[in-house]
Amino acid sequence: MGTKLIIDTDPGVDDALAIALAALSPDVDLLGVTSVFGNVPLDRTTSNARRLLELFGRADVPVAAGAARPLVYSKPRDAKEVHGGDGLSGHSYTLPEATRPLEERDAVRLMLDLLEAADEPVTIAPIGPLTNIAALLAAHPGAAAKIARLVIMGGGVTFGNSTTAAEFNIWSDPESARRVLVEEDVPVVLVPLDLTHRCAVDADWLAKLAASGPIGATLEGLTSTYRQHYTRVFGEDRMVMHDAVAVAEAISPGILHTETYRVDVDCGLGPARGQTLVDRRRLGEDDPQFSPGRPIEVAMDTDLDGLRGFVLDRLTGAAR
Length: 320
What we know:
alpha/beta, Inosine-uridine Nucleoside N-ribohydrolase, Chain A, 9-stranded mixed sheet, single chain, 11 strands
């Protein structure tokens, strides 16, 4: 089958599109989905993930609940003002009830079991706070050898959204983010706000999704609060699908164009907490202004129309 994939997620409207992209793609072997706190509390993100998979006819995919809070400090707020109180613009009731029971295993154990059982390295797409991934790599360092790469939606090269400096997923648990991005040795592609904002979709794209059938109509119906938020951000009717951009790269390596930069994460308690420090100066280690951090792949560009078409084709069934 195609790409072996695990999604770690906090659904979330853009997470819903990302899960749909993987679940509906014929060339993806979706091994499991793990939930984490984030856009809304853990009980809600877990329920949303399970019910989304039911909508997509994917009751074969196990779901396990993970971290309900950050590793060190409590998180000041969630993102209900962006995603709605239930994480899905108040429309989670339109999703079918999940028929597959929630895994008794927690998220870390499910990921570990899936990695150990796989006959080839597995891609993990963390599209929420990185707490579960940090816990996996800390408790089971040998698991890293079975991870092909982490394709992470998070961070910003030049701006944030939760604060001036910090993007929501990284800001939600900077200590876990630093563990994963800086202190581990697993291959990483970081998909930042700078690119995901450029991949925003418009009313015509959403209308095509809604017209494609029951799944597309239900997905489009989950976007109302989220769409209103981004209409205010952009000053026009456009909506960002952050997490789906990362999952597109997880499915189709190279659909995003990356540059290798040294990245660090600010874990201080000041106004820059959660900022991804992306050093684009390309200094040598012997330079006195050399910055710490780890060199990772940062997604900086893509064929914007091609990316939007790739996602829409997968969601509407045109790729099947």
